[in-house]
Specification:
- With 344 residues, the protein is α/β, with parallel strands linked by helices.
- The chain folds into two domains: 8-149 and 328-343, ATPase, nucleotide binding domain (Nucleotidyltransferase, domain 5); 159-323, Nucleotidyltransferase, domain 5 (2-Layer Sandwich), CATH 3.30.420.
- 36% of the residues lie in helices and 22% in strands.
- It is built from ten helices and 14 strands.
- The protein has helices spanning 23-31, 70-87, 127-134, 144-155, 215-219, 224-233, 247-255, 259-283, 299-312, 330-343; strands at 2-5, 34-40, 44-50, 56-63, 95-102, 104-107, 112-116, 123-125, 139-143, 164-169, 173-179, 182-183, 287-291, 319-323.
- A six-stranded mixed β-sheet has the order 1-14-13-10-11-12, with helices on both faces.
- Helix 2 crosses helix 3 and helix 8 (259-283) crosses helix 9.
- It is globular, with a radius of gyration of 21 Å.
- The two termini are 36 Å apart.
- The chain binds zinc ion.
- Residues 195-196, 207, 209, 211, 214, 216-217 line the site of zinc ion.
């Protein structure tokens, strides 16, 4: 039995932005430690400076330099960390550390980025060591989906749960696993990469993980053009154009009953449901929190996901599907939590 919760808005601590606080409040904040959270995404890099009470006191962002290599990328981070501290007249002494979420496979304990699909120049790079050799603060690097998972668990839809799986449905398909209220990393660091579990071994569209037919290749926005192209080649009638595809166009076509759009949405729902069902069987975690751009499909997608999940689930114990609650800043909030986790 699945329970879907859409968009339950709760007031969260991080909603408060205290940029215009009075001097007394600022002084109180500066007496104790601050944390910087960085969301180093494929399109932009966002920074948040958090005060001791968890409030955001400074924000900054810039487009991602997609051609950067490991050192170049890290040097940009260092420069901006220093700028943010300067802006608030802070030094590294007042900083507990910098948490960074990266869209990468990485060796968690070593802080080594193995590969990043969106910034391909960062390859087998010891980013944590590089940064710690240059700035006097603690650095924690982790996957960006883990950052979002932690943010949702602490402040969003996963509050109060002991175990939770975060599922990001967007350009890619990924996840983060919380067990006993802590992120689970696995042996190397990429536990939760549910998108690269294989749905149709050796068949289907080739993914960046170098396998054909992984779940990401059926579910994510990145592969929509491939499925439109395949459908048209099979002779399915459609208004969709593979060279100009995005989620909104898929939904518009779905709403007018376009045969290919219906087929693709059903294929997505089926694969999300099977993927989640498999995760449920392996971990027996009953709370799934969905984030990412494709959640805007709402009931069109998730009613089908629920129906498909229930088709395979023959035990009537509750399984909760929840929509992520943190609409913005979850990347920097989660990255800042990496540091708080280490301090607790
Ligand atoms: Zn893959």
């Amino acid at each position: 039995m699945t329970f879907i919760t859409f968009g339950v808005k709760m007031k969260i601590r991080y909603d408060s932005v205290f940029v215009n606080k009075g001097n007394a409040e600022m002084e109180r904040t500066m007496e104790t430690s601050c944390v910087i959270g960085i969301d180093a995404g494929g399109t932009k890099v966002a920074y948040g400076l958090f005060g001791s009470n968890g409030e955001i006191i400074e924000r900054m962002e810039h487009p991602t330099d997609k051609d950067a290599d490991g050192p170049t990328f890290s040097d940009i981070l260092i420069k901006n960390i220093e700028i943010i501290l300067d802006k608030r007249n802070l030094t590294f002494k007042e900083l507990s550390g910098v948490g960074i979420g990266v869209p990468s496979f990485l060796l968690y304990e070593e802080g080594r980025v193995l590969m990043t699909s969106t910034i391909t120049g960062i390859n087998d790079f010891p980013m944590r060591k590089y940064l710690e050799d240059r700035i006097p603060t603690t650095i924690v690097l982790d996957n960006d989906a883990n950052a979002a998972a932690l943010a949702e668990h602490r402040y969003g839809a996963g509050r109060g749960t002991k175990h939770m799986v975060y599922v990001v449905l967007g350009t890619g398909l990924g996840g983060g696993i919380i067990i006993n209220e802590k992120l689970f990393h696995g042996s190397y660091g990429w536990a939760g990469e549910i998108g690269h579990m294989i749905a149709t071994a050796d068949k289907g569209v080739m993914c960046g993980c170098e396998n054909k037919g992984c779940y990401m290749s059926y579910v994510s926005g990145r592969f929509l053009p491939d499925h439109v192209r395949l459908g048209l080649e099979d002779g399915v009638e459609s208004i969709l154009n593979p060279d100009a595809m995005n989620g909104e166009k898929l939904i518009e076509a779905y709403k007018i009953n376009d045969a290919l759009a219906v087929k693709i949405v059903e294929q997505m729902a089926h694969n999300i449901a099977v993927n989640i069902f498999n995760v449920y069987q392996v971990l027996n975690i009953n709370t799934f929190v969905f984030g990412g751009g494709l959640t805007s499909f709402g009931n069109i997608l998730f009613d089908k996901v629920e129906a498909e999940f229930d088709r395979y689930n023959h035990i009537s114990l509750p399984v909760h599907f929840k929509m992520a609650e943190l609409k913005k800043d979850f990347g920097i909030i989660g990255a800042a939590e990496f540091i708080r986790e280490g301090n607790n």
